[in-house]
């Protein structure tokens, strides 16, 4: 499928793996139900690199700092999803959806290093560790194709 990249909001995301190979999932604040979970992600600020933006978003949404991380890998392609009819972006101009760059990190901290109220408005109400291959079923359906790609690309970091 051919897309015009200018119609998509540039964003970044982080797959955070613990020592057992599980991934960090947060429940979107104010949402319930089986599809209210996702990885830390958000928009790039003007002029910031993809990796810096990913680490900033991770800190803003989880309180986790680079002191407790080691890099595992990244996906160099933009991953796209479209907003379904009736879903409008929260910020900025109207976009058709998001284009995202994704990074994987190993988390070496403990639960005491997670703080969901670190920065501004709270993104997540709770969090848990989950199996990577189960995550596409836990996200809102219009993001599922991105999570299926993440499951494939980052499978090597999910220690079994």
Automatic annotation (TrEMBL):
SUPFAM superfamilies: Nudix. Its cofactor is a divalent metal cation; Mn(2+); Mg(2+). A motif (Nudix box) lies at residues 42-63. Residues 7-152 form the Nudix hydrolase domain. Keywords: Hydrolase. Its EC number is 3.6.1.-. Pfam families: NUDIX. Transmembrane segments: none annotated. PANTHER family: M7GPPPN-MRNA HYDROLASE. Accelerates the degradation of transcripts by removing pyrophosphate from the 5'-end of triphosphorylated RNA, leading to a more labile monophosphorylated state that can stimulate subsequent ribonuclease cleavage. NCBIfam families: PRK00714.1-5 (NF001938). Belongs to the Nudix hydrolase family. RppH subfamily. This is RNA pyrophosphohydrolase. The gene is rppH.
